[in-house]
Amino acid sequence: MKRTPSPSPIGKALAEAVARLREVAGSTARIAVIAPATVNDVLARRELARTESFVGVDFVTPEILHSRLARAVLRREGLAAEPPAWLRATLARLLTRTDYSLPGGYDEVLRDAGWLPALVAAVHMLESDGLSASELAGLALDDDLQERVAALQQLMSEVEAARQAEGIASRRDVAQAAWRAIEERRTVPMNAPAAAILLGDARVNRLAFRTLQSWLAQRHVLRLTLPAVRKLRDEPQGLAAAAPEHAEELAVPEAQPQFRFVRTPDPVRECAEAVREVQAAILEGTPIDRIAIIIPDAADALPLGEALERAGIPATWQTGPPLLGTPAARFLLMMLDLALGEDSVAHWYELLRQPPLRLMDHVGEGATQGRGRWRTILARCGAYRGTQNILRALEKVRDAQRGAEEGETADAKQTTAVENLRRAIHTLHADLQAMGEEPQPVGAWAAALLDRLVRWWGPFPDALSLRRLLEEWASSTAGPAVTLAEMRATLSEALESTEFLRGTLNDPSVRVLTPMQALGGSFEVVLACGLTQGRFPAEPSEDPILADAMVEALNAKHGVALFRSVDRVPLEARRLAAVRSAATGRLWLSVPRVEMLEGRPLIPGSLILELATQVEGKRVGLAEFEQLCESQGRRSRPWPHDAERALGLGEYRLARLHSAEVGAQHEALLALVAHTWGRRLLEAHHAWGRLARGEATPELRPYAGFVDPAVMSCKGLDGHALSPEELASLVLNPESFLLYRMLGVRRLRKLYESWSPDPEYFVPERVLAHAQHLLDERRDDFAHLLEQAFHEHVAEITANSGEADTDLATRLNELAQRHIAALAEAQPVAAPLPQLKEAPLDDELPWQITGAAGRKQGEVLQWLSTKLPETRKREPEKALDQGTADVVLAAAIEALARRSEVFPQSLQWLNATGDVVETPAGAILQRAAEMVRTATQAATLGWYPPQRVEPEELAPWREPGEEA
């Protein structure tokens, strides 16, 4: 049966306050409830609605009151409101000017990445408190701070001049318009309320504080004080300080919640334990919207969201991770990067692989066919960077697919995939080019980005949040013109500082809040996380621009209340008081033991120790707090002892399987066996146990690394011919041969972020291949042929690279000279030998060999074995180049198949100590034959070991009872 929650203490107090004020202001008088933030307003409105039904009650914040009072007056005077991001764009425009300088050389400092957001915040703070550039003069500070103040003064003067030139209202203009609206009692909506209720306390900027003070002086005012908050001193320039002397006071009754102090293993498992408590509260009958999870900042948003999702519990997020990390934000930034020239194949693939991308809406029906092949196509197209180069390369691939040679069958799916990829890149690139490159105001860029976000991206929650941000920016096109790169930086900073919020406070869901957002709400269960020293409470720290000495001098001279680092201490106490005031039933307070990523221990915060002292009525230190806390969660066990506290089906089954009840264990085991993957895992563990005990039965073959040859045919054993390289790969690594040659499992090709020449160990092989073709046509100086072959090879690569700078040319020239000099020592190069047509390798072995390795003969083979890079010579244990073994074995295998004298008389090798050792060719051939026989035995048995196995180590599978 659904339980109807009783009215909360704060709801009753709000109802009583409204009734009192209407006794003096009139029964139909409008009343304004003023709280620190919009979230507090919404929570308080819901608490009032749960108690009684009232009309004519408005909920506003001091900042909203301030701006709404000024709106009509500013419109009449022809002043425009400051567009979003205008201040950032104006300061960025000043600092990017090469001829712009600031006192003390601060222009060089502030141009560095990362300083602009702090500078914007500092200027905004000073202007919001009504300080102009002229009021920064005359401060008694040391020389360094004096230069910093002079730099700020110059920047603020430029900003004020820019506002006047563009007809944008300054913050003082807004304040004066609000004050005139109050003094003249203008008929604006915010002047309609005849009384006001102040809920809680929080610091506001001086201009909004003076507006609130003047507005409240003309009305009946009642202060609603919360139980834990009223014990703290009033904030300077806060809601309580703005109340007139005639204001009444009404205390909200204290709820006396049940306190639970908990120690959890780490912040990640802390989130899981908090969700377990939510789950238990729901099972007890607590309404889901009467449960709140408090996190001190957004650091725990991701693990908390994952835990809530596993448990299937809906949540309304009033705090969350930065919008920058959402897929929609990444998509928009990737589009900007492409428009700015970051158009590598890796970047294009990362963009096109996004599932919400609406390709079919713009490219056409079936535009995503073959999407799974796009990565391989891009990797092999040969173009590393430049959209036009990539498109040309894709056109070549498409034409080659369409013009398949006679007798061959073109891959229709591959052709479709290439064409769809080309069309997708062409269409999206054309849309990006339509934005243009000329500098525009932030609002104009935002409108263009909003249009592309709506057209190209699905209406997902993260996209809706991003749309709201861009719509606000696009509402005005005032401000300086910025380049696309500056717009990209502006958007990135805004996304970093904007939280990704989901759901509304009207939804039936758990509330995820910050401590101050809990003010005005009432919850039967409150779970507060992260109460460790340094996080909650947070450590005081100075502003990087406005040092404490500067702030104190400004506060003393102009009577403002700018925030100092020492003000963090009372603020943290106020945050915990807001959490305590919101809890009416149970308050769960968690302190993690270890910071998991850094591996350092965490200690309880001073605030929770003070709270424990108040609750216990005696001093509680660290040792006493450990005894007071209950331990929840374990790092070594991801499931709870009680299956009812499990999050998700997996944890539930594990908890039942490890339950102390025999019946529950049996049922859990049956449930696991009934599931396909669970049954396979159990079978695998059972088979490995039997193998460990020495059993050898046919059904254990798959778990022992054997593949039944009757089930899976092996290329080479089934009559198909192999090339020497393929058989060499079988000899060196049978498992690799199984995956690559038989199953077709290939490692994904690398997508280059920037152009680079071929890896050095590929260049000789490819240059020699070019030289072979030249030798067929004429005999010429070998060094000249190599140089020509190298340039042909480089030209083939650079045709798609899109790079043509002097640094690249220098690198290519150095690489060419180095390899030409090295290869010239290995002359002469023999002409290619005739192709082998399925020559038998050995009468006793089933392998059929086809192909030729003319470039791997004679002195060239010797060079590939001995001419190692300098870096290899410094590491004797890695002296033999990894690719050399493949080359030597392939040549030896081909020599065995030809049964002719095409193999060199001897080879020179570098041994483990770096010494040159000459090995007779006969030894190489004999070793190759032994390795081929070993690999043949392994392939015939169906055994594919992960490493090369010596002949004496290979043992066949023996049936039970069979003698060795």
Distance between the termini: 72 Å
Record field, number of beta strands: 18
Uncertain spans = 863-882
Helix content: 40-55%
Beta-strand proportion = 5-15%
By oligomeric state, this entry counts as single chain
Largest sheet: 7 strands, parallel
Spatial order of strands in the largest sheet: 8-9-7-10-11-6-14
- Provide mean pLDDT, rounded: 84
- The best one-word shape is globular
Overall SS class: alpha/beta
How many individual helices?
Answer: 37
Radius of gyration: 38 Å
Short description:
With 964 residues, this protein is of the alpha/beta class. It has 37 helices and 18 strands. The model is unreliable at 863-882 (pLDDT under 50).
Q: Overview of this structure, please?
A:
The strands form five sheets. A seven-stranded parallel beta sheet has the order 8-9-7-10-11-6-14, sandwiched between helices. Strands 2-1-3-4-5 form a five-stranded parallel beta sheet. Strands 12-13 form a two-stranded antiparallel sheet. Helix 26 crosses helix 27 (662-674) and helix 31 crosses helix 32. The protein has 964 residues and is an alpha/beta fold.
Based on the model shown, name its key terms.
single chain; 964 residues; alpha/beta; 7-stranded parallel β-sheet; 5-stranded parallel β-sheet; 37 helices
Show the helix and strand layout.
Layout: H1 9-25, E1 31-34, H2 38-51, E2 57-60, H3 62-77, H4 86-95, H5 106-110, H6 115-128, H7 143-166, H8 171-183, E3 195-199, H9 206-217, E4 220-225, H10 239-242, E5 248-251, E6 258-264, H11 267-283, E7 291-294, H12 301-311, E8 315-317, H13 327-339, H14 345-352, H15 359-362, H16 374-380, H17 387-402, H18 412-433, H19 442-456, H20 461-474, H21 484-497, E9 510-513, E10 523-528, H22 548-558, H23 568-582, E11 583-592, E12 594-595, E13 600-601, H24 606-616, H25 622-628, E14 630-631, H26 648-657, H27 662-674, H28 676-692, H29 724-732, H30 734-742, H31 763-777, H32 782-798, H33 806-824, E15 836-840, E16 848-851, H34 858-866, H35 870-873, H36 882-898, E17 906-910, E18 916-920, H37 921-941
Parallel strand pairs: 1-2, 1-3, 3-4, 4-5, 6-11, 6-14, 7-9, 7-10, 8-9, 10-11
Antiparallel strand pairs: 12-13, 15-16, 17-18
